[in-house]
Design goal:
two-stranded antiparallel ribbon; 166 residues
Length: 166
């Protein structure tokens, strides 16, 4: 299997080097870039994915609809379109950039480029990438916060999303 190479970036998304996925997720705290897409339906429900149990980070937890790493030489927009297509079969949506921030866990540091869209589907869930996916009403998400249902990153980002709810 080809080893994934990620661009190392500064907080302003300037590329300053490169490293493998393994190096970035090893506790090195090498700052690398990711994209997140929050998908709402017309009712204001938020589409979430349940991460595959095969994932190296947060397996089996519910998370942002689309989330993935930016590959070396790839633009933020191209990474967003690629990840949406790979994970959900989602094409033809119009993403709106919301914000960028640095997220740090015990094993990695990422610059998160966050987008939103209103999109009803169709979706084609990749069973290798995801165990499940569905729209969640906002009150159902709120009722499950802090209970280990969601990734810590999603819970933190959910608070940042509140101004963008319908």
């Amino acid at each position: 299997m080809k080893q994934e190479i990620f661009p190392l970036v500064d907080e302003n998304m300037n590329v300053v080097g490169s490293a493998t996925r393994q190096e970035c997720h090893s506790g090195s705290m090498l700052l690398h870039a990711v994209v997140h897409l929050h998908i709402f339906n017309a009712n204001g429900d938020l589409f979430l994915q349940k991460r595959s149990m095969n994932k190296d980070i947060q397996p089996g937890k519910w998370d942002t609809a689309v989330g993935g790493h930016i590959d070396l030489g790839e633009s933020v927009e191209d990474a967003l379109a690629r990840e949406a297509r790979e994970e959900l079969g989602a094409v033809g949506f119009k993403p709106d950039f919301l914000f960028r921030y640095v997220f740090q866990s015990s094993v990695e540091r990422e610059v998160v480029n966050t987008f939103r869209t209103v999109f009803e589907g169709p979706f084609q869930i990749d069973p290798v990438e995801l165990d499940d996916a569905r729209f969640w009403p906002i009150p159902e998400i709120e009722a499950n916060l802090g209970k280990g249902v969601f990734t810590p990153n999603f819970e933190q980002e959910f608070e940042r999303l509140r101004p963008y709810f319908n």
